[in-house]
Write a structure and sequence with these properties.
Helices cover 83% and strands 0% of the residues. The protein has 216 residues and is an all-alpha fold. Helix 6 (76-100) packs antiparallel against helix 7 (102-126).
Length: 216
């Protein structure tokens, strides 16, 4: 169950993270660039968004790893790990805030999230409570490859239609929506073709949830 939780978490968060990194500026521009929020503000905010996005998989993986402790009635270890990550976050904030301003805060947050995730995984593995199975080891490189390929295409599309992202609000939102849909469809197709996931897998997952809801 833990292997599948990690696999599903990365299947959703890796493409989201790389997409947010490569099109951070168009996203911020379309959503917020108006009035006093000018191009300079867009660039500054987009930089922070891109850094925060790198921590997205870690934020979700923590939720997949912590139950490995809770299920064995170990509530202390996740709290200790969280405190260590918090201390690292505070120290990095103090160190990076000066030279990097708000981007330094984003870096500190992402780094501390990955530290939290890594310590939880290492603790489980050390105690023999987590072993990546064959399916997980097989899926992760393919998910990463599909995410990178999708990000490259999304980045190219955003450059190709860059002028349209600075037009009227209706056109800007339509173009951003088109980029997002293009990326989602492409990633889904690549994941399916590479054998990461199939339509049957989704039907099984959602069918199982539906049946459980009916029982409840």
């Amino acid at each position: 169950s833990q292997n599948r939780a990690i696999e599903f978490s990365l299947f959703l968060t890796l493409p989201a993270a790389v997409a947010l990194v490569v099109i951070a500026e168009p996203i911020i521009s379309v959503l917020f660039e108006r009035g006093a929020f000018d191009a300079v503000s867009v660039k500054a905010t987009a930089g922070a968004l891109a850094i925060y996005a790198t921590g997205l998989p870690a934020y979700v993986l923590v939720k997949a790893l912590a139950p490995g402790y809770f299920a064995r009635e170990d509530t202390k270890t996740p709290v200790k790990v969280a405190v260590i990550a918090l201390c690292i976050n505070v120290v990095l904030n103090l160190v990076l805030m000066g030279p990097l301003a708000h981007v330094g805060i984003a870096i500190a947050t992402s780094v501390s999230a990955w530290v939290n995730c890594a310590l939880l995984a290492m603790g489980l593995r050390k105690n023999g409570r987590f072993r990546p199975d064959r399916q997980l080891r097989r899926s992760l490189p393919r998910v990463l490859a599909a995410s990178v390929a999708m990000a490259a295409v999304v980045w190219g599309v955003s450059l190709a239609i860059g002028d349209m992202l600075t037009g009227s609000e209706t056109v800007r939102f339509a173009m951003l929506g088109a980029i997002v849909i293009c990326g989602a469809v492409l990633y889904g197709a690549l994941a399916h073709l590479s054998g990461v996931v199939s339509i049957a897998d989704f039907r099984h997952a959602f069918g199982r949830n539906t049946d459980a809801d009916k029982v409840e």
